[in-house]
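Lab notebook: predicted structure, single chain.

Context: the supervisor wants predicted structures on file for every construct in the current expression panel, including those that have not yet been purified. This is the next one on the list. No modifications to the sequence; it matches the entry in the shared construct table.
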Amino acid sequence: LQGSPGELFFKQAPLISSLVVLDDSHQLMPELECWRPDIVLTNPGWGLFPNKRLKAINGLKGRHISMIEHFHDYRQRFGYPDKHWQDNCPETILVSHAAGVEIAGRIPVSKIYQIKDYATALMRDELSMHRKASEREPTALLFLSQVVDGNGSGDGRFSYMGKFESMVLNDLVVHLPAIRDVFGVESFKMRCHPSRQSSPPLSFQKVVQQCGLTYELEAGGQVPFSRSLSSAKLVVGLSSMALYSAFLCGLPAVSIV
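Prediction complete. Output recorded below exactly as produced.
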């Protein structure tokens, strides 16, 4: 989709020779019906898109394969607990960790494969490169902001953890003196979710300003995650997959839920 993190990623990918960018998600099925692809690879999210189109994709003649990178809410990504949510499930699910294989086994799919985790290996290499190029030691508390879907209701199917983010930030500010003493952080960096096209809500900015440390607001869609990690001494978040990625890269990672 135009303006999505995926558009920027695939434009930079060396092996992509042709890229079609859609102005609107409603153009997806007409385009797929014209292309008649042999394989449709999806990364299902928690919102209405692409959930409401998964069943239609299953109706195409090509194979439908979903790759899931998170470790929870697998069923919700295919429409659970709506009636007939199983009709949205693909033929095959790909995951990159053993934990994902176990969770995916609870979904009615015929094939589950664990593939090599290239993303984490690449992130570790990029993190090492950024830190070698920097003249400064990492001193930041990196807070990973999450998406808040309206009132956080998740279309009535589940609750986004992101709706508690303001509460978590307030608690974090209260305990910053202790965090600073234990971890030795000197600055506060808030990385916005890549899907946020604008600055965080003003309420979040006010909370960050109360921390008493130097601070920075960072657009996740414009700054590589490995660069964000390169200045971090401690990574804090709610339930973001990025938090687990930080842990895999060897950084102290704290989940507040």
